Here is the input.
Amino acid sequence: MIVITGGAGMIGSALVQCLNELGEDNILIVDHLTTSEKWKNLVALRYVDYLDRESFIAKLELNDLGDIDTIFHLGACSATTENDVNYLMENNYRYTLRIAQWVEKNPSCRFIYASSAATYGDGERGYIDDESLLEQLRPLNMYGYSKHLFDLKAKREGWLKSIVGLKFFNVYGPNENHKGSMRSVMNKSFNDVYVDGKISLFKSHRDDYGDGEQLRDFVYVKDVVAMMLWFRNNRSLGGIYNIGTGQARSWNDVARAMFAAVNKVEKIDYVPMPELLQGKYQYYTCADLTKLKSSGCDVPARSLEDAMVDYYQNYLIPEKYLGDE
Here is the structure.
């Protein structure tokens, strides 16, 4: 059996959909749906069972789930504005720790977990996925710190020899409608672009970046999933790896790609950045993929422009979810 925590989320459901395409449906989805709309991401997918996150961890620690081939641990609170430190410690750090401690006793199970590019902080120390540099990183928010804490723990315990932590950069794509304020700009601004023909971007608050010229490594969710499955198939590998495109693109590039995907003339307005974000905002992120490529992973990443066409024309415009194609 394959376990996917956060299986109803964007990356998790995209992973299920890809596994289904490969003929695999012996999948246990773990999530915490409550009143969210995440359940809609599951409707077109095939899997054997669903468990709430608390039921799953209890059954796992009692060895009450049978043989598990792989655990993809994607479930976490990913809100960069979450300020309940106790919640993030329990939900992001300690929950991951409990799964890892079970895997340590059950080494035949492949464990692949989501770290985050947020662990890199402002990027002044670079975006190099070298475990020897982990102690030098300084995350800018509690979400990034909660992820960083487990990376450090895994290093100290020697687990990174056999488990894989993936530092996702800016992931976007189908099945993110439920994420509210944490949706990508590509999703949040879809109606503005498609219906109103305009988009708002944050002004820059640094002299070395123009308005809309802040840079990000934007990676399409379908490519993320392909890279994750590559690590499942290459079970001898362990360690922390960046998952991105290796190219930094500006928000202006994003806007242009969005307008082009719906055949609209671009119109961009620049608005002040909220004070809450100004001290925690990353002006530049770009995945260093040297380690990923040297591992043998040759999964290609779509260009921003090609991905936007697929996202808008095959999902957002027809209002479809992954698996509905």
